[in-house]
Amino acid sequence: MRARMRVLLLLAAAAVCVSHAQNNNNSSNDNRQQQQQQQRSIWDEPIRFSTKTKDTCTMVVSGAGDYTRLRVTCKGPSQGQTPGRSYYCDFQGKPNLCRAYNLNPRHYFTQMMWDMRKLSHACQGPKVYRPQMCKKYPDEAQMTFLASWPKTTTPKPSKPVQEQRKPVAPPQSKPVSTPKPVKPQPQPAKPQPGKGPQTKKTTTKPGKTTTRPTEQPDSKASRIASEYCWKSFHGVCSYFISWFQN
Q1: Which residues, including other chains, have CB under 8 Å from residue 91's CB and lie 6 or more apart?
Q2: 220-228 and 234-245 helices, crossing angle to 10°
């Protein structure tokens, strides 16, 4: 009897273990199916948008281990016979660390798309995108720029190459201007005895005439006055000389 009881207990314990394992497998399978459906709903339906310069872009989400990877592929409008430009860029991060992302992952990338469509070049935006729904989370939970084609990273400024020193020409000295010789100003001639100083001819204004005393031209008084008086005082001198003679 005891042996039978032991066998029954062992069978009951084994049945409980099997049922518990089946429940765990079913729950894990359900979670996987939900995740696969969620991934398909995001990854199989790319997000499309246009940039500020009318570039047609597509956002495709994929998985890379523990990371979520995003590729943005764009093509510009053709101009006549010239085809439009083509470029793409990759982003990588762990947005699943954000609780709001797990509730609505597609809206997370839609918010990224709203920022990209404001740009002229979809791959020349910020290096780290912080959608509003997960803005408070660290950089690890954000989508970070990974690579692009063609490369859009700005090159680091190279060290300026030292230019070959050109021989410095000596400054050309300006020719010294020799001062012009100053013309000596003519000194006024000393009055010779008997001759008055030569005065400049002045134009007498009409209307004002000085009355001189009448004199005889060949008189002795006028001859003495011309020898000993200035020319401007000949009349006066001859007058006084003739007065004294008389």
Answers
A1: 69, 70, 71, 72, 129, 143, 144, 145, 146
A2: 130
Burial class (CB in 10 A: 0-12, 13-18, 19+), 190: exposed
Q: Which helix (H) or strand (E) holds 12?
A: helix 2-43
First-to-last alpha carbon distance for the chain, in angstroms, is 204
63 pLDDT more than 80: yes
Q: What is the pLDDT of residues 180-218, one digit of tens each?
A: 655 556 555 555 555 444 544 445 555 445 545 554 544
Q: Which residue has the higher pLDDT, 159 or 110?
A: 110
According to the 3-state scheme, what is the secondary structure of 189-239?
CCCCCCCCCCCCCCCCCCCCCCCCCCCCCCCHHHHHHHHHCCHHHHHHHHH
Q: Strands 86-93 and 67-75, how do they pair? A: antiparallel
Q: What is the DSSP string of 141-157?
A: GSEEEEEEES--PPPPP
Give the amino acid at 101: Y
Concatenated DSSP letters of 23-61: HHHHHHHHHHHHHHHHHHHHHSS-EEEE-TT--EEEEEE
CB neighbour list of residue 133: distance below 8 Å, 6 or more residues apart: 98, 100, 101, 104, 107, 108, 111
